[in-house]
Amino acid sequence: MFTKAIVRTPGKSLVNGLSDSKHLGTPDYSKAIIQHQQYIEALKSCGLKITVLDPCEEYPDSTFVEDVALITPKCTIMTRPGAESRRGEVTKMTKTLESQFKNLEYIESPGTIEAGDVMMVGDHYYVGLSERTNLQGAEQLIAILVRYGLKGSTVRLKEVLHLKTGLSYLENNKLVVCGEFKNDPVFSGFEQIEIPESESYAANCIWVNDNVIIPSGYPMTKQKVSATGYNVLEVDVSEFKKLDGGLSCLSLRY
Predict the structure, then answer these.
(1) For residues 113 and 66, is the Cβ–Cβ distance under 8 A?
(2) CB 3.0-4.6 Å disulfide test: which of 120, 167, 212, 219 passes with 230?
C-alpha cells in the first residue's frame, strides 16, 4: 500500500517540453494547472499524503517527476535521463529525497535510464531498453537492485517511448497490456487486461491502494479495468498527453 506521493507543479515553461506528439498541439498552461490539481485530489482520495514541489522553470519537463528517481522499499535510485535536457532535474529531486531516504544510489555515465522504463512487480523490476534507457543504465540499475536483495530483467522496446507507455501492473498478477506487449512471452504469466490500440494512451494507468486511476475519455479501458473489480477513478490529463506524459509520470508514489 502507498502512503505518500511527490508531485511537482508544472512551470509556465511546460509549453516548451519534449514531445513526439506535436500534432496534438501545444499544452495549455492554465488547463495543465487545473488538471494537475485534479490529479493531486485523486491521489488524496486514495489515501495518500502529497508533497507538492514548486515549479522548476528551467526544466520544462520537470513535472514528470517519475523519470528522475526510482523509489523501492530498500533503496532510492536517482536516474540519469536519456534526454540530456532533463538531467538537471535529478539534482533538484535529490535535494528533496535526501531528507526522506537513507539509501540513495546513482546511475552514472555512460548509463542512461528514465524510471518511466521501470515497472515494479513485487521484488522484480522490468526495465525497458528504449531511446531513453540504454543497456549500461539498465545493468547498473539491476546491479543496485541485486545488492539490496531485489531482482530485475530487461525488455527491449520496439515502438513505445517508455515501458510503462504500454504496460501497467495493477497488482494481484493483473497487467494492462497494449500494442507490442500483447503477445510478448515475457508477460505471458500475467492475467492480461488488453487495451485496444484506439485507446493506447490509457495503457498508462496507476494502481493506488486498490483503486486504479485512468485518463478520462477511454470508455473501453474503464470498462475492462472495472470488470476486474477495481474502483476506477478518471482524471483528465490531456495537456500532459501533448508532451508524451502519462498518469504514472506525474508522481513518485511510495
Answers:
(1) no
(2) 212
DSSP notation for 207-233:
EETTEEEEESS-HHHHHHHHTTTPEEE
Which residues does the annotation mark as catalytic?
Answer: 162, 249
Give every CB contact of residue 26 below 8 A, 6+ residues apart in sequence: 15, 242
Neighbouring residues of 42: CB distance < 8 A, sequence distance ≥ 6: 213, 233, 235
148 exposed, middle or buried (CB, 10 Å; 0-12, 13-18, 19+)? Answer: middle
Which phi and psi angles does 192 have, rounded to 5°?
-95, 135
C-alpha cell at 152: 530485475
- Pairing mode, if any, of strands 252-253 and 69-71? unpaired
Closest Cα to residue 234, out of 206, 210, 196? 206
Q: Does residue 196 have a cis bond before it (omega within 30 degrees)?
A: no
Q: Which residue has the cell 485523486?
A: 42
Provide DSSP, 40-96: HHHHHHTT-EEEEEPP-TT-TTTT-GGGGEEE-SS-EEE-B-SSGGGTHHHHHHHHH
Beta bridge partners of 8: 53
Taking only the tens place, the pLDDT of each residue in 71-112 is: 999 999 999 999 999 999 999 999 999 999 999 999 999 999
What does the pLDDT look like over 164-208, one tens digit per residue?
Answer: 999 999 999 999 999 999 989 999 999 999 999 999 999 999 999
Q: Does residue 183 sit in helix, strand or coil?
A: coil
